[in-house]
Amino acid sequence: SLFLHQNQNPFSSSLSSSFCFSFSSSFSLSFSSSYTHVTNKHQSISSTLNKPKSQIPLFLSVFGVGVSFFLAMVSSPFLLPFALLLSFSLLFVFPFNQSQSSFFGDLQDLALFHTATLQLQNSHAGGGGGVSSVSRLGITSNPKPKIAFLFLTNSDLSFAPLWERFFHGHELRYNIYIHADPTVQLTPPGGVFDGRFVPARKTYRASPTLISAARRLLARAVIDDPLNLYFALVSQHCIPIHSFDFMYSFLFKNSITSLRSFSSKSSYKSYIEILSDEPNLYERYAARGPTAMLPEVPFEQFRVGSQFFILTRNHAVLVVKERKLWMKFELPCLGEEPCYPEEHYFPTLLSMEDPEGCSHYTLTRVNWTGCWDGHPHLYSPEEVSPELIHTLRLSNSSYSYFFARKFSPESLTPLMQIADDVIFRD
Predict the structure, then answer these.
(1) Which of 29, 44, 111, 129 could form a disulfide with 263 if both were Cys (CB 3.0 to 4.6 A apart)?
(2) Do 236 and 153 touch, CB atoms closer than 8 A?
(3) Name one GO cellular component term (predicted).
(4) Burial per residue of 26-47, b for 16 or more beta-carbon CB atoms within 10 angstroms, e otherwise
């Protein structure tokens, strides 16, 4: 704008000034807000769930509109109607609401993902192979790798007492991160979950917002602690069906002599379900239009699997920094039937980028017998028994499931009764 003013081009200068001021003022405020969210990695329950909706971006844009009018009038009278039309158009192009794909929310996510990606690049540049001995608690003399547990929820963490018992005594080997729908008032779970909520956005079932929420959790965990080497995504309906020691020993194989060895050993895989021959796969692929996913995602590379996974750190960063496939999967589905993008994005991406580094199976057990409206079987208190836990652990291979879902909140009491003697006795 200054360049055009100096060259005495009133039409160009007033127009560019009008647009640049109203847009850049909003963008800079949004980016500064993103930076604040990145540096304040953890929020308390009250500040996260009850955060007021800022009206400052709207004020700055309206102020920019006013400046647009002024510049138009002082530059050339005939530009006033044009500036008026442009200004009102900007208010519609950049609506300041809380929609699932809001402009400022996307900017905050981009800043967060960029920070997570830079952290890994800096670690590699320092020769650390992406792994550091400095945890979020400070420098540790004999650091142990950690599992980041990522809770994705839109309701109370009803099984918090069971998880509390699961985590007890292992404080140096795990971290917890919770993404809770900010439009839902949750009962504070307390204990190990206190202060572990991350800045969140509203999620919708069978929509790209669930992909964004999972990526948000991964990014926060990557930034928060370099010792987070595995990232387990679970829901509020998931329960552990093995002890923490069993899970930790399985993932790290009791053989890590140094943290740097983790990034170089091919035996450490991500545990994510990747399927290519499921029914209705093409219907879901073409749900956005027969050619909408092309050329980035040809049907031959389109995959499906459980949205609940356990990723290595390298794969977590791969997911966070990815842009190309995300632009396809965030497109809305056109038909009446949901296309469940959260069940396709992660399996497709990792299958395309590193199929050999993935197990192709999930460690979360789910019962699809008698499913309804896309929901799996919901276990009731009457169904909880030692036999059920033993059955849920079993797989068709040599591995054993770590988690199981879905359990009704009322199942907590019978689960707690068998926790020590059954669930955590491997």
Answers:
(1) 129
(2) yes
(3) membrane
(4) bbebbeebbeebbeebbbebee
Which amino acid type is present at position 5? H
Structure tokens at 119: 């952290």
Amino acid at 240: P
3-state class (DSSP) for residue 279 = coil
CB 264 within 8 A of CB 187: no
The full length of the chain comes to 426
Instruction: Say how far apart CA 79 and CA 72 lie, in whole Å.
Output: 5
The whole-angstrom separation of Cα 312 and Cα 321 is: 14
Distance, in Å, from the CA atom of 154 to the CA atom of 181, rounded to the nearest integer, reads: 5
The 3-state DSSP class for residue 105 equals helix
Q: How far is CA 377 from the centre of its chain?
A: 25
Cα angle 352, 354, 360; round to 5: 90
Q: If residue 135 lies in a helix (H) or strand (E), which one and from where to where?
A: strand 134-135
Peptide bond into 406 cis (omega under 30): yes
Helices (H), 132-240: 160-167, 208-224
The per-residue pLDDT for range 342-373, each reduced to its tens digit, is 999 999 999 999 999 999 999 999 998 877 77
pTM attached to this predicted model: 0.75
Residues in Cβ contact with 386 at an 8 Å cutoff, skipping those fewer than 6 apart: 418, 421, 422
Q: Which parts of the chain register pLDDT below 70?
A: 1-102, 120, 122-142, 254-266
From CA 272, how far away is CA 310, in angstroms rounded? 6
Is the CB of residue 34 less than 8 Å from the CB of residue 99?
no
Coil vs helix vs strand at 273: strand
List of domains in the chain: 2-93 (no CATH), 103-361 (3.90.550)
Cβ neighbors of 239 (< 8 A, separation 6 or more) are 159, 162, 163, 403, 404, 405, 407, 415, 423
